[in-house]
Amino acid sequence: MYKTKIDLSEKTRRSVIVLLNLRLADAIDLQTQVKQAHWNVKGPQFIALHELFDKISDLVLEQIDDIAERVTSLGGIAEGTVAVAAKRSKLKNYPLNITAGKDHLFYLSTQLSVYGKAMRAAIDESDKLGDADTADLFTQISRAVDKYLWFLEAHLQ
Prior knowledge:
Strand content: under 5%
Distance between the termini: 48 Å
Oligomer: single chain
Order of helices and strands: HHHHH
Number of strands: 0
CATH architecture: Up-down Bundle
Radius of gyration: 16 Å
Shape: elongated
Number of domains: 1
């Protein structure tokens, strides 16, 4: 670990870095899955879904950067390669053969739900570790995920 003047113990920082890197893997996996849907969606709602999926992708890209930067600010190494994400992600594999808008909405809403649940658990875990700033980061991510989950689910209702 790198030295920092952040006033969290090294033990706390090490534990939080592990947590952050696990959620970084989920975020990287989710972003690629959203792009998969963006590139391949077809049907009567094509343009609306194509644009919505792009907005979600952009949001998750920002979250990836925020998570990785928090890791490095705590003195850790952001472990953000595709290979690492593939090993660590809690998300299920995205089906590559779907094109229908409703199918993409179903799978993306499911994946976003799993991602949001992991972020909420990370809020509690980082809070228990004594890192309120990381808990706040996860709270911001969770809030945005819930908003976009609502957008996806509204199309399915």
